[in-house]
Amino acid sequence: MLIAATVFGLKLALCGMIAVIVMGRVIDYAQEGLSVEKAAFIIVFRCS
After folding, report:
1. What CA–CA distance (Å, rounded) separates 31 from 20?
2. Minimal CA–CA distance to 25: which of 16, 34, 13?
3. pLDDT tens digits for 6-40?
4. Residue 27, Cα to own-chain centre: how many angstroms?
5. How far apart are CA 5 and CA 11, in angstroms?
6. Burial environment of residue 16 by CB neighbours within 10 A (0 to 12, 13 to 18, 19 or more)
7. What pTM, to 2 d.p., does this model score?
8. What is d(CA 48, CA 37) in angstroms, rounded to the nearest whole number?
């Protein structure tokens, strides 16, 4: 981002970064669907 900010200016660099983040979210929603149930596995090690 630092190189993009020096070459294109800070405003365009920030717009590009926001565009990449938004497109990543859109692709995730397109692949997984909007109502995705997420599960978490908790692994506990008990030492006796």
Report:
1. 17
2. 34
3. 888 889 888 889 999 999 988 887 887 665 556 66
4. 10
5. 8
6. middle
7. 0.59
8. 35
Q: 3-state class of 7 per DSSP?
A: helix
Q: What are phi and psi of 8, to 5 degrees?
A: -105, -15
Q: Report yes or no: 4 and 12 within 8 Å, Cβ to Cβ.
A: yes
The pLDDT score that the predictor gives to residue 20 is 92
* Count of CB atoms situated within 10 Å of the CB of 36: 9
**DSSP string covering 29-40:** HHHH-SS-----
Q: Break the chain into its structural domains and give their ranges.
A: 1-48
**Alpha-carbon radius of gyration of the chain:** 19
